[in-house]
Amino acid sequence: MAGSETDRSGPRRYPKGERRREEIIAVAAEVYADTGYDGASLREIAKRIGMTHAGLLYHFPNREALLAAVLERRDEQDAERVELRGPVTFGAVGHLLELAGYNERHPALVELYVRLAAEAIAVEHPAHDYFTQHYAMARTWVYSSFTALSEAGQLRAGVDPETAALTFIALMDGLQVQWLTSPDEVDLVGPLRFLLEHLLTVPLS
């Protein structure tokens, strides 16, 4: 996902080669969002950056390597944004609402995810294993969150944490598809909040 990366000393400064690599990843993400992975070529990505095809191959020897870098960067930025690597607490579900709100302000990022996820249904697609693992990890993380809520008495009686997790993820992804089609009619955050308010015994902050 696009965005600036900072630390305590201010904006992160990359060596020249690393800056070029980051630029390639960012532009590749834009091209994937525009055309999907199958419709993107390394030559087109290089052209948008203003570099030669050979120059791009110096950083990424093939399409699969570049796709893997784009997906890896997306995961890193999502994890930082919603604290997915932190402990599972009540605030975890709130972080997911924050992520939905962020996505609503960045439609190109949502389109990138939706396009690649749809293409990767095919077993032979180079991102198939990534999305298989991505969804498995997402289900596990959200399931752990709902389990913690259940153990704390904050999940309504009779609600199965596993089913709740699967439902939440399905709603989140399904909303993204509808929102891309009708952005003026579909809200990415409201329905998720509605679901959580009906699953929890405590109010959302």
**Residues in helix, %:** 55-70%
Strand runs, count: 2
The number of helices is: 9
Radius of gyration: 19 Å
Shape, per Cα inertia axes: elongated
Question: Distance between the terminal alpha carbons, to the nearest Å?
Answer: 26 Å
Structural class: mainly alpha
Low-confidence stretches: 1-13, 84-88
**Overall mean pLDDT:** 84
- Beta content comes to under 5%
SSE topology string:
EEHHHHHHHHH
Instruction: Report the sheet with the most strands, covering strand number, pairing sense and barrel closure.
Output: 2 strands, antiparallel
List the topology elements.
Blueprint: E1 6-7, E2 10-11, H1 16-35, H2 42-49, H3 53-59, H4 63-82, H5 91-104, H6 107-119, H7 128-151, H8 161-181, H9 190-199
Antiparallel strand pairs: 1-2
Can you walk through the features of this model?
This protein is mainly alpha-helical and 205 residues long. Helices cover 67% and strands 2% of the residues. The chain has helices at 16-35, 42-49, 53-59, 63-82, 91-104, 107-119, 128-151, 161-181, 190-199; strands spanning 6-7, 10-11. β1 (6-7) and β2 form a beta hairpin. α1 (16-35) packs across α4, α6 crosses α8 and α7 (128-151) crosses α8 (161-181). Mean pLDDT is 84; it is low at 1-13 and 84-88.
